[in-house]
Write the structure tokens for this entry.
Amino acid sequence: MFIGEYIHTVDNKKRLAIPMKFRKELGQKTVITRGLDNCLFLYPVKEWEALAEKLGKLPVGQSDARGFSRMMLAGAMDVELDSLGRILIPDYLKQYASLGKKVVIAGLYNRLEIWNEEKWQEYKTKTLETVEKMGEKLGELGV
């Protein structure tokens, strides 16, 4: 299970070190793709395969289903952790998420999210303002 948030640096060669505590569960090979809210999602292969199978079964006759599948599947790239636990972030994903030098790696149960540090802080500030209302709604759903 992935939890916690960490600030890391993208080096000049577009490599990002994954926090040590996530490496074993993530595995040597992983999948990175466009995420929601202009971040990147990083999945262990097993989790990615389960998600990709669900996306592949969405009805192609529905515009929203096609668009979401395209964003996630066409945006995906296989990446490997090097001997120092770093991944190479493709240019198109780095641009999509507006990644600069400093990024936040956030653990979200079955995936990691990679955020531009400033956007992460803005998102957290905005979300904290409504977290109680969110909690109430989730409580109604049994969470």
Remarks:
- Residues 2 and 22 are 7 Å apart (CA to CA).
- The beta strands are 2-9, 15-17, 29-34, 40-44, 77-80, 86-88, 102-109, 111-116.
